[in-house]
Amino acid sequence: MKFYSTKTESVKASLEEAIFNSLPKDNGLYMPESFPKISEDFLADIENRSFKEIAVEVANTLFEGEITRSELENMIDTAYDFNAPVVQIAPDDYVLELFHGPSMAFKDFGARFMAAIMSYFLLRSDKKIKILVATSGDTGGAVAQGFYKVPGIDITILYPSGKVSDIQEKQLTTLGHNVTAIEVDGTFDDCQKLVKEAFLDDELKNKFNLASANSINIARLIPQSFYFFSAYAQLKNLGKPLVFSVPSGNFGNLSAGLLAYKMGLPVHHFIAATNLNNAVPRYLASGSYEPSPSIETISNAMDVGNPSNFVRLTRFFNDDWESVTKKIYGAYFDDDQTRKAMREARTNANYVMCPHTATAYLGLKEFREKVGGDFTGIFLSTAHPAKFIDLVEETLGEKIEIPQRLESLLDIEKVSIKMKADFLSFKNLLLSEL
Prior knowledge:
Number of helices: 20
CATH class of the domain at 83-103 and 220-396: Alpha Beta
Radius of gyration: 20 Å
């Protein structure tokens, strides 16, 4: 499988190069040159396949000729000891639960597969790499868990001070070993900017083999497509068109859904559901993309003012706005609407959801009201509600159960390096201390 840069199509990369370089030299993003189709015979029988079988088939379709099927089976068997079940909450509405992995967030699907495929290539080349990742909440915990103690890989995680939940912070600051957490005095956009600048710095590139575990890395997006296929398999027997509502921040998750669609997954529509960081819904409404500084909300993992994957989202449709809007509907909601949706789901469906999940729930609800049609709606639940325990309990006015794997973190002291949102400081820190 070959990739090209979204900025300069003549800039090409192999799968291994795209994974380890993360960004092309021109600071674009890697996109597949083509989208191989899933076998029609496989789709016809997909409802009888397990999550792992689906993941192997999707990965083999993409990587055929570069990684053997048996090696992919080993990677996927190592990465996934959890599934992505759909749960019915209304006659035609289902929630796709993506929080059953070790960090209890959807990013476990991408981070754990990414760790497995990087280890595969590193064992062949005997190289060592340093991974830099910016997080607005869940990415850091998933990457920390996924790459913890993986030979040949050091992880440096940047997160905005005071803008992630206590449990999210503990997940990325309490492991140690090959995981280092940097607490940045700024926003997620500041953290993301520092990571991107590091990849363009010659001195850092000469000293380290740098890679990213953010959704700018194509190896994060590919495995996230697995659960879109899995959701289809679980609901195929209903015989209705599928509409996916995706809570969106950096737009990696929606890009993964679009990859699945381009590979042949039957999807009637996608909904890009955001909080007040709504550059993409505004683009979908007007045709003009105008990013802005990020706004702090209760759905903090989606507080992204200038989503990196926007360029991928439009490139799936050859950057044609009308084509984009035929497949993607945009909606955004404020904190009051989000809290109201959390209470509504608890009252009407006895379902407890985090604020990000509530945003997707609202997106699906708006789509039904404004667009309509006879379809099966699936909204993505991206994190366990206990990861936002204080907010959820305050909103619902009740106590909720904390899973043991999260509760055990609360008494562990965090270890982080505090730093201003300044690239020279970050560079010097990398060169001198890490």
